Amino acid sequence: MKLLVTENYETLSQITADIVLMRWAENRRVNLALTAGSSPKRAYEILAERLNQVFFDQSLAHFYNFDEITLKDQEYGLTMQALTEELFNPLGIVEENIEVLDAGNYQDYDRQIAEDGGLDLVLMGIGGDGHFCGNMPEFTSFDYGVYRVPIKPGDELYKLIDESSPHTPGEEMVTFGAQTVLAAKKLVLIANGEKKAEIIKQALEGPITEDVPASILRLHPNLTVILDQEAASKLK
């Protein structure tokens, strides 16, 4: 594991954008699974700025959403809506290069990734409960590839989605499991802010346990963790 502690969120974002660009610049098909959310927001802004300044062959980059939460009466789920707004539209990614994961194809998705040459980079955040992708402590297993989790009104997952989206949650979530993520060539985990300091300590210095799902990422031979000083403040 390579640990990078940056002075601030801006530097974290610059390094994250550079890592994505270095993969993109390899002059071959590159398969990327990049997270949505607040942590990578600035990195994607930097990425869009740099892609406007330097030529990159857009056709070489293919994007895989590593989880999806269905929403009632919506064509796309929560993750695809966020990625479209935060990443795909600003970068001008064409539809043909977006390999959608959803409730209809999740059972074949591991096979599709393998046939496409495997994932070159997975960029993830970490939840306050230690989850990565959609691997929540209450239902994850380190033995899973891509899998489905039912969503029921009143359960914790339903409440979480209902609070974070203007749309009504659907009936299921699909997500990369640990086995799918660990099969990727390179993993990057990013976190910023003091609110992530305690779970980062547990994930990086505590036991590897399904109670803190992100702890399994330490077993990957090519994992880079990028933190600002606040997120790293409780590490030894």
Strand-helix topology:
Blueprint: E1 2-6, H1 9-24, E2 30-34, H2 41-53, E3 61-64, E4 67-71, H3 78-91, E5 98-99, H4 109-115, E6 121-124, E7 147-150, H5 156-164, E8 169-175, H6 178-182, E9 187-191, H7 197-205, E10 223-228
Parallel strand pairs: 1-10, 2-3, 2-6, 3-5, 6-9, 9-10
Antiparallel strand pairs: 4-8, 7-8
Please describe what this structure looks like.
By secondary structure, the protein is an alpha/beta fold. It has a single domain (2-228), classed as Rossmann fold (3-Layer(aba) Sandwich). 31% of the residues lie in helices and 20% in strands. The chain has seven helices and ten strands. The chain has helices spanning 9-24, 41-53, 78-91, 109-115, 156-164, 178-182, 197-205; strands at 2-6, 30-34, 61-64, 67-71, 98-99, 121-124, 147-150, 169-175, 187-191, 223-228. The strands form two sheets. A seven-stranded parallel beta sheet has the order 1-10-9-6-2-3-5, covered by helices on one side. Helix 1 crosses helix 2 and helix 2 packs parallel to helix 3. The chain starts with a strand and ends in an 8-residue tail after the last strand.
Tag the structure with descriptive keywords.
three-stranded antiparallel sheet, 7 helices, 31% helix, seven-stranded parallel sheet, alpha/beta, Rossmann fold, 20% strand, 236 residues
